[in-house]
From TrEMBL:
Residue ranges of the TM segments: 88-105, 117-138, 284-307
UniProt keyword list: Membrane, Oxidoreductase, Transmembrane, Transmembrane helix
InterPro entries named among the record's database cross-references: FA_desaturase_dom, FAS_N, Fatty_acid_desaturase
Name of the featured protein: Fatty acid desaturase domain-containing protein
């Protein structure tokens, strides 16, 4: 009897020990998970990374609890420093790479056997357009005085680079400055002003189908930038004809008109150089070596800016609700994969760029990461594959209207047909 009682007690002790050990292990696991979660939150990790959110299309908030000064304080001081030497390095780098692409295409594609030459040209066009877009981005930085500490150097470099890529430097610089000053204002923004429901045109309704969307995207990407410069399509309505080549255009102020004329002379010089090349090399050679890559720059430019400013999560404002920081925050970063680096990170630092446009591209990622914990849910990056994102925005972002049940009737959101 005593032996049986002893064995029973020993079994109870063993069971009790196992339970204690199990509870102890559970406590360790929970503690580790809790510490890991707190660590991520404190470092601005997964809890603050909108790219890992389940619904990237969730609307951003409207009223920020921070100021521009708060954001600047979060950025390391060296991120605001512009280096002429470092900026010049990227210009030289891009020019060297562009020359290598040109040399390979000019010397070797013509001697490739059929059909390799027909495959090689598109590869060249993509590579050359990519690197030239990076060069265009540096010209864009010059317009924001982010190239060096000297405005005349910035304007000289930007003028040469943009003129060579058939972009009127000063004209676009001034209209682009207006865009930054009035981002997502339905009354005063300079470009990418969406239509309200009552203003949706008949052809938009006709093209509201898969083939129509593909046609619309191809048209926008290839002709969007030239037509914007020539006719101010998708731009601010001035009550009369406006373009980027007329010094008297309402886009520009009186003091800007001389420099607009200078931009025109820059383009005339570029076209004269093209004429000389055509006379010497032939139209087909110039088209393949230079023309198609420059068209590719326009395609990249429209694609990048369209995706930065067109998203279901982004609000637009009329004059009753708009203010500068609300507008600047109503943009979104995009992930172009390996092209992010080729394009000097302009693709995934656009939110920062609208908040502080004079930070050079080589400091942009560090500055962006520094302000993300402050921005919180006001910051978004959409990593949706680019072609999928293009089609989604063309389908979903047709017109804007305020929410019927909202008290903020001046805040507009994208809707589909």
């Amino acid at each position: 009897m005593l032996a049986t009682h002893y064995k029973l007690n020993m079994k109870l002790v063993e069971i009790h020990k196992k339970r204690i050990l199990k509870l102890h292990k559970s406590h360790i696991t929970l503690s580790f998970a809790d510490k890991s979660s707190k660590s991520n939150m404190g470092a601005g990790g997964n809890m603050l990374d909108p790219s890992k959110a389940n619904d990237i299309l969730k609307r951003v908030p409207v009223e920020p609890p921070f100021s521009l000064s708060d954001l600047k304080k979060a950025i390391p001081a060296h991120c605001f420093e512009r280096s002429l030497i470092r900026s010049s390095y990227y210009v030289v780098h891009d020019l060297v790479v562009a020359y290598v692409f040109y040399f390979l295409a000019d010397k070797y594609i013509p001697i490739l056997p059929y059909p390799l030459a027909y495959l090689a040209w598109p590869v060249y066009w993509f590579c050359q357009a990519s690197i030239l877009t990076g060069l265009w981005v540096i010209g864009h930085e010059c317009g924001h005085h982010a190239f060096s500490d000297y405005q005349w150097i910035d304007d000289t470099v930007g003028f040469i680079v943009h003129s060579a890529l058939l972009t009127p430097y000063f004209s676009w610089k001034y209209s682009h400055r207006n865009h930054h000053a009035n981002t997502n204002s339905l009354d005063n923004d300079e470009v990418y002003i969406p239509k309200r429901k009552s203003k949706v045109t008949l052809y938009s309704k006709i093209l509201n189908n898969p083939p129509g969307r593909v046609f619309t995207l191809v048209f926008r990407l290839t002709l969007g930038f030239p037509l914007y410069l020539l006719t101010n399509i998708s731009g601010k309505k001035y009550g009369r004809f406006a373009n980027h080549f007329d010094p008297m255009s309402p886009i520009f102020t009186q003091r800007e008109r001389i420099q607009v004329l200078l931009s025109d002379f820059g383009l005339l010089a570029a076209f004269y150089a093209i004429k000389l090349l055509v006379d010497n090399k032939g139209a087909a050679w110039v088209t393949c070596i230079y023309g198609v890559p420059v068209l590719g720059v326009f395609v990249f430019f429209v694609l990048i800016t369209y995706l930065h400013h067109t998203h279901l999560s982004l609000p637009h404002y009329d004059s009753t609700e708009w203010n500068w920081i609300r507008g600047a925050l109503s943009t979104i970063d995009r992930d172009f994969g390996f092209l992010n680096r080729v394009l000097h990170d302009v693709t995934h630092t656009h939110v920062l760029h609208h908040l502080i446009s004079y930070i050079p591209h080589y400091h942009a990622k560090e500055a962006r990461d520094a302000i993300k914990p402050v921005l919180g849910e006001f910051y978004k990056i959409d990593r949706t594959p680019i072609f999928k994102a293009m089609y989604r925005e063309a389908k979903e972002c047709i017109y804007i209207e305020p929410d019927e049940d909202s008290e903020q009737k001046g805040v507009y959101w994208y809707h589909k047909m």
